[in-house]
Amino acid sequence: MKTPITAIILTFNEEKNIVDCINSLYDLVDEIIVVDSFSTDRTIEIIKSYGLQFHQHEFTNYSTQRNWALNNIIIKNNWILNLDADHRVTKELASELQLLFSANIDASINGFVASRKTLFMGKWIKYGGHYPTYHAVLFRKGFGYCEERLYDQHFKVDGTIKKLKGDIIDLITESLSTFTLRHNKWSDLEALEQFSGNLLNNTKLIKGNLNGNPIQKRRYLKNIYDRFPLFIRPIMYFFVRYFLRLGFLDGKRGLIFHFLQCFWFRFLIDAKIYEIKKTNEKST
Containing domain of residue 185, as a range? Predict the structure, then answer.
């Protein structure tokens, strides 16, 4: 049974991923819309073979692309599911959504959060505090938007949200080269945003709240991390994730993931913030 949900998928040169993403949704939702950033591989050809609606829009950043889709595309359903091409809806989540939408959803509920199940080098990263990690992927039309930040954007939902039990699989990388290239780019954005202080005055961001929903709790902890000294905080973060949160139980591939994601990436951000500060000092 197809549900009255519109799925919006972002793509750019995703010929290796888009088929499995679409197939995980095809029998679940009655509308799939693809927003493509002018792919040069077979992505568009594959989308056309499914007969899906697609739009092309120049990519600036994820929040701009997401909000452009929400504000400029005619969406027929009142519920919107937001995915990337390297995401897959699990069978458990599909069954849960079919059951949920077979009844009337309480009018007070405007969104649902689901956890991502990260696969890194073919292995589920289960420990280190990486699972469950909830994201507001499904919300009523007009009640959700992507917060305006350069990196680490989340969907903000106005109103009550509920947890889903099923997961969304996130194929976090094709290779270590892809992983490091992407994170090097993202470290530029995070360093610039932290240095500029734009996050402090942005009223459209999710506010940290230890007693709030899972996303607000995560933002609360991230805000604490941001207040620690540069270069000290990535060491502490890796220690907590790998040792105290049992990341070492993820084995060798887990060691690679937790070291790169929790230490290397965060240390790189700090190094770039330091670099920006020194450059600005020389110019003044």
Answer: 176-283
